[in-house]
C-alpha cells in the first residue's frame, strides 16, 4: 500500500513535496505576459492545455508534439526532488509563457495578481469532476489511497483531497472573474460546442487563426485523438507514478458519468451540500448533455 500523505498549507491539503517547497512557490516571479491555465484537478486541464498550445503554435501539430504535454507548460506548484521544480522550469522558459496551476486563488503566488496576468479557468460540474478524481486517485501512485467510493465521497465533500475543496476552488475563481483578466470556461460547453469555446480562447490570447485552422484544432483536441496521442495520453509516465492498468488517464471524457457512480441517497445528499456551499453564486453547470 502507498505511503503517500498530504500536508496542508492554510488548511488546503497538497502533496508533501509542494508544501516542502512552498517558499519558492510563493516567491515565484510572474511576468505580465504570462498566461496561467487554472483548474481544479480533473476539470479538463490537459484538454485546455492542448487547445492553448495548438492556438499558440498556429495549429501546427508537429510543433505541439515537440515534447510530452506535461513538459510544455509546467505546474508552478509541481515539485518532486531532485528533479527541477515547476518554478525552476518556468524560470527557464522564454516569454511569453504558458503555465498551469491547480491552486485556489488564496494560495496563488501574489506576483500573478500584481502583474495582472491572463488567467484561463476551466470549471467542470462537481459530480463528474469528483468521479474523474476518484479514478485518478485510484491510479495515481503519488496520492493517498482513496478507499472505497463511499469513503472517497466523504473525503471529497469535506475538501480533504489534494488541492482542497471543489466548492471553494470554483467559487473563489468565479468571484474574481471580473476583477482580473480571466476567461472562465466550462468543460460542458467545451464538449457541447468545442469550436465556439476554442474561438473564445483564441480571442482571449489575441490570436486570429483561419477557420480551417480552428477546425483542425477542434479535431486534434477531440477526446478520441488525445487518447491516441502519446504526447497527451500520459503513456510515457512511469507506472510507479500513474498506473494506467488501473484506470486510463484519458478515461471517458464525457458529461454525466456521475450517474454511474452516485447512489440515489448520495445524490440527494450531494445536492443538499451543493446548495449550502454554492447557493448564493450565479454559477450554473450542465449535469448532462
Ligand atoms: P474523465 O476521467 O471523466 O474521463 P485533467 O486533465 O484536468 O486531469 O482532467 C482529466 C479529465 O478530462 C478526464 O475525465 C479526461 O478523460 C478528460 N479529458 C481529457 N482530454 C479530453 C478531451 N479532449 N475531451 C474531453 N475530455 C477530455
UniProtKB/TrEMBL annotation:
GO cellular component, one term: cytoplasm
EC annotation from Swiss-Prot or TrEMBL: 2.8.2.-
Entry GO MF terms: sulfotransferase activity
Pfam families: Sulfotransfer_1 (PF00685)
SUPFAM superfamilies the UniProt entry points to: P-loop containing nucleoside triphosphate hydrolases
Domain Sulfotransferase residue range list: 32-281
Subcellular location, record wording: Cytoplasm
Superkingdom of origin: Eukaryota
Swiss-Prot/TrEMBL keywords: Cytoplasm, Transferase
Primary location class: cytoplasm
Similarity-based family: Belongs to the sulfotransferase 1 family.
Protein name: Sulfotransferase
Species in which this protein is naturally found: Mus spicilegus (Mound-building mouse)
Amino acid at each position: 500500500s502507498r505511503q503517500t500523505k498530504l500536508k496542508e498549507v492554510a488548511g488546503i491539503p497538497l502533496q508533501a513535496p509542494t508544501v516542502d517547497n512552498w517558499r519558492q512557490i510563493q516567491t515565484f516571479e510572474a511576468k505580465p505576459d504570462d498566461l496561467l491555465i487554472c483548474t481544479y484537478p480533473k476539470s479538463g486541464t490537459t484538454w485546455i492545455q492542448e487547445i492553448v498550445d495548438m492556438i499558440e503554435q498556429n495549429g501546427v501539430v508537429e510543433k505541439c508534439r515537440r515534447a510530452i504535454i506535461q513538459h510544455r507548460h509546467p505546474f508552478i506548484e509541481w515539485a518532486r526532488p531532485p528533479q527541477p521544480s515547476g518554478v525552476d522550469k518556468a524560470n527557464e522558459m522564454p516569454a511569453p509563457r504558458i503555465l498551469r496551476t491547480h491552486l485556489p486563488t488564496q494560495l496563488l503566488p501574489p506576483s500573478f495578481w500584481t502583474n495582472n496576468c491572463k488567467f484561463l479557468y476551466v470549471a467542470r460540474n462537481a459530480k463528474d469532476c469528483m468521479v474523474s478524481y476518484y479514478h485518478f486517485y485510484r491510479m495515481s501512485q503519488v496520492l493517498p489511497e482513496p478507499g472505497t467510493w463511499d469513503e472517497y465521497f466523504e473525503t471529497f465533500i469535506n475538501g480533504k483531497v489534494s488541492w482542497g475543496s471543489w466548492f471553494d476552488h470554483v467559487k473563489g475563481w468565479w468571484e474574481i472573474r471580473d476583477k482580473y483578466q480571466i476567461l472562465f470556461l466550462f468543460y460542458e460547453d467545451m464538449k457541447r460546442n468545442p469550436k465556439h469555446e476554442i474561438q473564445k480562447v483564441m480571442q482571449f490570447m489575441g490570436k486570429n487563426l483561419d477557420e480551417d485552422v480552428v477546425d483542425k484544432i477542434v479535431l486534434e483536441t477531440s477526446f478520441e485523438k488525445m487518447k491516441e496521442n502519446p504526447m497527451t495520453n500520459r503513456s510515457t509516465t512511469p507506472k510507479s507514478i500513474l498506473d494506467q492498468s488501473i484506470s486510463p488517464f484519458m478515461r471517458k471524457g464525457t458529461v454525466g458519468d456521475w450517474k454511474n457512480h452516485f447512489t440515489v441517497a448520495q445524490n440527494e445528499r450531494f445536492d443538499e451540500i451543493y446548495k449550502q456551499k454554492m447557493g448564493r453564486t450565479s454559477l450554473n453547470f450542465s449535469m448532462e448533455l
